[in-house]
Model the fold of this input.
Amino acid sequence: MQVIKVSKSLKSQRLKIGLIKLKYSIMKDYLKSWKQLQMKATTKYVLKGASLTILSAAFALFGLVVASTQNLVAGAFIVIGSSVFWGYACLLSGIVELRQKRSSS
Amino acid sequence: MSSFWNRRAKAKKKLFIIDKIAYSFLYIFSISIFYLLWDAYIRQDVWIIGIYAAFYLLFLIPFFLVVRDIHNNYGDFEQGGIAEGTALLEGIHFLCADPMCPRCGGWYIGLGLSFAITIVFKDYMVSILRNYSYSQYYVIVLGVILFLLSTPIHGSLTFLKKFRQKTFENKRLKMILGLVSGLSLTLIVTGILMLTQ
Done:
């Protein structure tokens, strides 16, 4: 009886391990398909730039609301801090130009 | 490609000025957020504490992504031997506040103007809009539409989208568009204030 029990538990363990392996393989395939779905470089950069500008505008809005309702100085500081994203969007345009020059030449 | 996690070891070798500027922006932002959190804690507004904490997280994640991106680009340029790229990242164009700059547009000047207008004329504008019984939703929607129309033309997106034509290379037009997009923020803020008051 004991031997049968052991074999049953072994079987169930193997089944479990097999299920986990199957799950991981499905996940891996999914991730691979995501990686293969590479966007065009220009659309990627445009999306990045647009999201950066929207982020910076959103934080500026937050700062303006804080400055007019809660505290003036804190709001001004938040507005200043929001310009990180705008500054990086400006830099990104320069970086993209350089990369395009390099790829075309 | 330099990874993000061994950034400190590499940063010891070469400290970017751009890195320092970005981190100083982070410190300024976090000082003000911590002050606001403390203020909300004293007034025991639990919801407002949550909102501030969410905004802080929303700032932190893209900030570290930006810093990682800068380092990755720098590493790429260094490996490829592009002197222009490394010079661009080592310079201080990040802090460019030139209203006529073709790349950055008039965003900063528009933002400053809208900040001043919202601080000074806030109550005046709200009372005028109330007198003429304009709904706050109209104001918010109008502001968002103005922002979406003006921002892609004056900022960095012109360079990214490659619709650089002669009209869009005009510096004065870009500055005016920057002012418009800054003033659209004022409209949105007055709409939000009308909602809250």
